[in-house]
Amino acid sequence: MNYRYNIGCSLSNLKGIRDFVRSTLNENHVPEMQISAIVLALDEMCSNLMIHAHHCNPNHFLELHINHPDKGTYVFEIIDDGSVFDINQFAEPGMDSLVHEKRKGGLGIRLVKSIMDKIEYTSEGGKNICRLTKEV
Amino acid sequence: MVHIKRLQENGADIIAVIGEIDASSSIELDLAIAKSVGEGFKRILVDCHALEYISSAGLGVFMSYIEEFRDKKIQMVLYGLKEKVINTFEILGLAELLHIRENKNEALKLANELSV
């Protein structure tokens, strides 16, 4: 199983990403609560990339691949050619500091790290690949 | 896409959030809460019955008001959250930082109790 989705870096396209991930996982009979969490993690990753690496330029594109290499394992790859936005390099802010600093960011990284089992970054042929692995 | 409706009941402002809140629409939620605060409401209820999805952008809006509400003695209570939505709050431990109740009556009751 291998699914692909191409999308311009506009935040209005996030809904399309969520629908694509949801319908793909639905087809594969992933339980509803797991689907909701995975959809959220992919939304967070893509919106981070759109905002921080592509400044929401709709002429820049992201590619999203979903692979299901074996029973129970799902691999999500987000491929782009912007600057690398490696969330492993970001310390997760504590909830107290988020409240105190009135920061509206920083929560997404926490969510992705809580939901996904593995987050890896590689680069191939000038493209960045962010690979998220989830066992369901 | 999100639609936000506001109505007032027993002196409390009720903000009904309909649809999905993500990075593109969280500003709408922020504006609605800011308006309510600007109009001087001390009890703000957020009706989440028709909230189908929320990402960190929306959660961040709620978080960003916690201190201001504490300072201004404003009580905000969320109610009617679907299981899939409340799960997102729970992953982050936000369910403990925010007031959440099952229905409007309980939410209003809590807001009144906290206002005393």
| CA distance, first residue to last residue of chain B | 37 Å
The largest β sheet of chain B comes out as: 6 strands, mixed
Please, what is the average pLDDT of chain A? 90
Mean pLDDT of chain B equals: 95
Instruction: Give the biggest sheet of chain A.
Output: 5 strands, antiparallel
Portion in beta strands of chain B: 25-35%
Summed up, the helix count of chain B is 5
Shape of chain B: globular
The low-pLDDT segments of chain A are: none
Strand content of chain A: 25-35%
**Helices and strands of chain B: which structural class?**
alpha/beta
Q: Tell me the domain tally of chain B.
A: 1
Multimerization state: heterodimer
Largest interface: A-B, 31 and 27 residues
- Identify low-pLDDT runs of chain B: none
Give a quick precis of the structure.
The complex is a heterodimer of chains A (136) and B (116). Chain A is α+β, with helices and mostly antiparallel strands.
What does this structure look like?
The complex is a heterodimer of chains A (136) and B (116). With 136 residues, chain A is α+β, with helices and mostly antiparallel strands. Chain A contains 4 helices and 5 strands. Chain A has one domain: Histidine kinase-like ATPase, C-terminal domain (Heat Shock Protein 90). A 5-stranded antiparallel sheet of chain A has the order 1-2-3-5-4, covered by helices on one side. In chain A, strand 2 and strand 3 form a beta hairpin. In chain A, helix 1 packs antiparallel against helix 2 and helix 2 crosses helix 4. In chain B, 47% of the residues lie in helices and 30% in strands. Chain B is of the alpha/beta class. Chains A and B meet through helix 1, helix 2, helix 3 and helix 4 of A and helix 2 and helix 3 of B.
List key phrases describing it.
heterodimer, A: 136 residues, alpha+beta, Heat Shock Protein 90, five-stranded antiparallel β-sheet, B: 116 residues, alpha/beta, Transcription Regulator spoIIAA, six-stranded mixed β-sheet, 5 helices, 6 strands
